What does this fold into?
Amino acid sequence: MQVLKPGRIQAGHSEEVTCTGNGNGNGGCGALLLISSDDVYETFNSDYTGDTDYYKTFCCVQCGTETDLERYTSRLRTDGKRPSYEERKAIGKKNLERAQ
Ligand SMILES: [Zn+2]
It folds into this structure.
């Protein structure tokens, strides 16, 4: 994954997304990102009735926050591997250091 510079457009196997934290507490940093299927992985959430919803999710390289994509509008496959909780925390920590 890479942070976009203005004007870069790729069709097909990449999508422009914004780090919003959608579906994960909405704590995203707002970074504009270019992601490919290698950055996307499947996550799921089971509710009390036993129903399970599946999501296409990516982890922001700037802040470590996960964002769920709109599953039926995103064309990306889920070829990526979910970073561990520790890995995501480490990304967030690095982002805080960047701000100081
Ligand atoms: Zn972010």
Q: What stands out?
A: The radius of gyration is 14 Å. The mean pLDDT is 88.
